[in-house]
Design brief:
28% of the residues are buried. This protein is mainly alpha-helical. The longest helix is centred in the C-terminal third of the chain and has 26 residues. It contains six helices and no strands. The two termini are 17 Å apart.
């Protein structure tokens, strides 16, 4: 890892972008209602959840993912386009299908896989674009 140069502001921005995408993705504006139904979560359960724990750990996890992606992208020739491509490949090729494998064993629906996997494809693509553009 010698010589790896990471833009920590870009890491923070990419993590925050993932947080914003999640807020929209799982809201009633997009897939929130369908996600609650296919995940078997009620509005009451969501309302009773420990918000500090949920959002705090979500931000920490997104920061860790952003740092790891930044390390993968820490090459001199990285661009917005390459960052977006590598982010997409990470989201689709690894995370989407990892969610799919677990969901199949949990007997979850295809809607569940598409909603949760789709979030990660979009998020990792955006994170990669930010990290690639802002090196």
């Amino acid at each position: 890892m010698d010589g790896v140069s990471i833009n920590w502001f870009a890491v923070l921005a990419a993590a925050f972008a993932g947080f914003v995408v999640g807020g929209l993705w799982y809201s009633p504006l997009l897939f929130g209602n369908l996600w609650m139904r296919v995940a078997g979560v009620s509005e009451e359960q969501v309302a009773q959840g420990n918000k500090a724990r949920i959002f705090g750990f979500t931000l920490i996890f997104l920061l860790i993912m952003s740092v790891c992606l930044a390390m993968f992208l820490a090459t001199p020739d990285i661009t917005l386009q390459k960052g977006a491509l590598y982010g997409f490949l990470t989201g689709f090729g690894w995370i989407f299908f990892a969610i799919g494998v677990v969901a199949l064993f949990e007997l979850r629906s295809w809607s569940y896989i598409l909603i949760n996997g789709g979030y990660w494809v979009v998020t990792m693509t955006l994170m990669g674009a930010i990290l690639g553009a802002w090196k």
